[in-house]
Input
Amino acid sequence: MQSENNTHLPASATLAPFRNPVFRSIWTATQISSLGWLVQTVAISWLMATISASDLMVALVQAASTLPVFLLSIVAGAIADNFSRRWVMFAGHCLIALASTTLMISVGLGFASPWLILALGFLAGCGFALNDPAWHASVGDILHKRDIPAAVTLMSVGYNIVRSVGPALGGVVLAFLGPLAAFALAALSDLAPLTAIWRTRWNVRTSPLPRERMTMAIHDGVRFTVMSLEIRAAIARATLFGLASISILALLPLFVRDQLKSGPIIYGILLAGFGMGAFIAGMSNSFLRRITSQNRLVSFASVACAACCLSLALTSSVPVAAVSLALGGAGWLITWTGIDVSVQLASPRWVVGRTLSIYYALSAGGMAAGSWIWGTVAQNYSLGWALEGAAGALLLVAAAGMLFPVGPWEETDQESSDFRPPELALDLKPRSGPIVVKVEYRIPEENIETFLGYMRARRHVQSRAGARNWTLQRNLQTPSIWTETFRTPTWMDFLRLNHRLTAADKEIGDHLLSLHDGEDSPHTVLSIERTTEAARTRSPTLFSRPPR
Output
């Protein structure tokens, strides 16, 4: 149930986040690093195409860097929510720098092999898996909520501005200076984000409670995501889109080599066209959001990517391919920006790193699987079949908008509300439990239907925050009395649950309070369960001291 106070998020000026020096510094450094990464990606893809005769190995270059995001992002999200996001970002960029430096040394010494290239791509992917959830989650810490859509758009636009320059630069460097120079440039560019993160600071609202165990943090993040309909739909849509749309980038080296009969410069130019389309779409994003719904916009983006794939399958013209890739780039940016912002705005701050990481994991898993699927189709059948099949799949993804709609960008208060633990007569330890909570309401007959509607919403928000075995009972002897009951495994879990409830969640309690018929507030009882099993005692004949 959406709060009555929810409003559509007002459009923020696209460049407004740049007024924040922390965001500006890290954003700029990230673009420098991305430039080096794109130059390296061009070099890796082309190097793989020249040292390996397998079309599948070429397509797996994309999979190697995206697979770690699928495997590790959920753990990385739990780390981002439990540790300093700044230091998590720093660690991620250290792994990326290590992979780039090792690749540069390997090529320089002449022992680069297809499997080593894939392994180092996997290591860099591990760095991205650590960095991306922490960086995107930090946007909500650094900026005001109204600036989040503009910030996410700028992050995508920035990358695609670099994509417009990086591949062309990579093609030129590769053609005139060789792969070693490309890898050296990438290794140097990794110093920029490391320096920016080291020098900047930003305030983060910390929890007064102890850090969660990793297994429990992952469990709670998955539970919240599964129970959030809007986030679940967005992730499903992203996974399907990644599965189908990655065909454009995964098969592009084969398209240039086999269909255009060209080299790395043309490959770089076509990637620049893809990035330019994304840049134009990013600059137009606010206008597009005003003229159509977010769900319809994402569906149109899938159709644009389908048109790109179909056009590539049917053309041997570089200009036509460049225009088609610009259309595909526009669809790519609109989809990923729309889904990323939807997940961020639907997630409270305590779990945003985990919801984003699950989104990244499943969408990256879709892209990794798609790289393998379309590479296999190209190798066993033909490149044209692979592109045409991907176009058909993207049209199905567009139609999936009816089943998995991307919600509108709405502003709700997702900050955790203040909570003061109740006074207790017993001295409980953090691991004491299970804790049973009972809240008794007195509801007039005419308010029952409204009460049950708010209770359905309350069950949802309480359960996804950690409540177990939630039930609602009606007193058979006094039918106006209703009792809400739920459990938490420990006292610490009870405290976490209440710290996780946002101000928007607490509004449901305010509505229930207005329906309560009584001078006092609904009566709340906290209990701790105790077993009635007989305790085992030690035998006095074996362990007691004999009487003197």
Remarks:
- Residues 21-51 form the longest helix (31 residues).
- The two ends are 73 Å apart (CA to CA).
